[in-house]
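Entry for FE2/S2 (inorganic) cluster complex. Fields follow.
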Amino acid sequence: MSFRIAIKGRSEAVVAGMGETILAAALRAGVPYPCGCRSGNCGACKSTLAAGEIEMSPYSDYALSKAEREQGLILACRAVPWSDCEVAWLEADDVAMHPIRHLDCEVIEVGAATHDIRLVRLAIRAGGPFDFSAGQYASVIFAPDRAAAGAGDRRLPPRDFSMANRPGGDVLEFHIRLVPGGAVTPYVAETLAPGERVRVVGPYGNAFYRPRHTGPILAVAGGSGLAPIKSTVEEALARGAQQPIHLYFGARAERDLYLEAHFRALAARHPNLTFVPVLSEPGGPTQRRTGFLSEAIGQDFRDFDGFKAYLAGPPAMVETCTQVLKRRGLARQNCHADAFYTEADKAKLEGGE
Ligand code: FES
């Protein structure tokens, strides 16, 4: 059984298969539906349900409050239709409208950014041009021919990674943190080599750079969350942004910091950029700033009124920083957060934990 989903502003309805969410059906059909986490936690896919019956799987109150649900709002990533439906996504003028591309890429570089983060560069060989907004991510399939090679290996599942490069050009950069025991990142850490093919599908995500904002920018990255924040900060500077840009980069210890020289050089060239690395577990005496990112930004700023904030990294870091920002006056529409959920995190959320 399948249902037709009419999306406001689109001439063609999309078809959702049995058990498929509205968001999944829309993305499969190539509709650039606004989304972020795809797990009911960020609210980026919030939509109005104008007609039809749906069932919502578990989601966080932050993404959709009880009052919003009672007003007929839904999360497209959690909504499974039980009839034909009509939906409209919110913030229609705040959506990155890029076509979904299926790219064939080739690995041109695999480097060690830290002991557990690989910096991977891919050259786009077919399927482009790849338009995206700084801060967005893509679904990446490494070794797509593995199963076909007959080596008895199972195909690696797709994983989401943020582009670390600025939009434009035909080389993509990803920062990939090793998740021990994971299905994909150990392959990237130990086996991936230049010359291999990689498939990339995207772009996705709603925590992208908004160039029309002229107030101060707070950019906060934890670990490999530096990737989308790097793209965002570099894009802002390349577009000639004149406002203060405060970049905070949180890592556990010295060995977890990377691209420090790159950002110090960028700050030397752009007086409006400040770069603040913060270590949460320095493990010994250090000259650096220490503590959690939420503490550092709470100490450095009294009021975030008029700011735009871009955050990316582990969910706990994004959550604690977002709370500080909201308490200090950041308007909700000026907070663009991308929490990096691991597959284990997503499985827990699916179980309602
Ligand atoms: S809540 Fe649906 S994409 Fe994040």
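NOTE: The domain at 2-94 is CATH 3.10.20.30 (Ubiquitin-like (UB roll)).
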